[in-house]
Design brief:
The protein is mostly helical. It is built from 13 helices and 2 strands, in the order H-H-H-H-H-E-E-H-H-H-H-H-H-H-H. Helix 2 runs antiparallel to helix 9.
Length: about 300
Amino acid sequence: MNSHRPTGPHSGPAPGASAARAPRRGGPVWRFFGDARGTLLAPQLLLLQVSHPVVGAGVKEHSDFRSEPWPRLGRTLMSLNTVIYGGQRAATAEAARLIRVHAPMKGVDSAGRRYHALHPEAYHWVHATLVKGPVDAQRLFGRGLRPEVVEEYYREMRDVGRVWGLREHHLPPDWASFCAYYDTMVAERLEDNASVRDLLEELAHPAKPPLRLLPGPVWRPCAALAARYTRLVTVGTLPPVLRERLGLAWSPREERALRRFARLVRGVMLLVPPPARNGISLAVAYWATHRPGTDPRARQPLGAP
């Protein structure tokens, strides 16, 4: 598929998407997608996403990321966690909403290429980064996942892709095929662009959260520390070929610092009981599906089949 060609939007979820299952309670997606360690890789996933020319163009022209990074982050987290932890009806409703929101996002990028936010290649690539991120997080900040667990996790994430509206033929059939697809995308399709530069600037100088009780003098040293470790994790975990393509320096000293930080995170997480490791994600999903103004028809017990 070529992002240079204009493509029409999906008119709704893919045929059979209504039969695609949201993640089951207690399954590998339930356990690992919202694990707190995965949040450390969130900036890396966003960088991978906007490196795709279609996603980068859409974010540049249609996103309020630069002007309102924290509200935008909050909406993204609510959307993702609704699909993963909100149960079948809420997941299906949120997927349909996402398609409606993205359908009008189209135009011509700075290189003169037409783009559409629902281009299947771009839509799949965003899903692919969300598939791989939790596996990478468990490998770096945990003990890693056994091969059979990864296969089960991937089968469930294929269902998530179908809930989001992806067609069956867009989804590699197994983990090995997925990794081959992922590596090909990184090698052949990702590029430097204005959205990549905007994101790197935001990560280097994070905006203060809209909290009245957090004064600037307190936030500034916190921001400097956050920027340091965000860069360490984000740049250090990028595929080396993409890191080089984006001109991001990486030294053996930084690699050692990343390994030390990973050991620290592993040690801290040993003190957190496994059920509590995705507690924040569960809370976000509950708020997203039960806050005032939500559609009660999309509600059900959290994570119900």
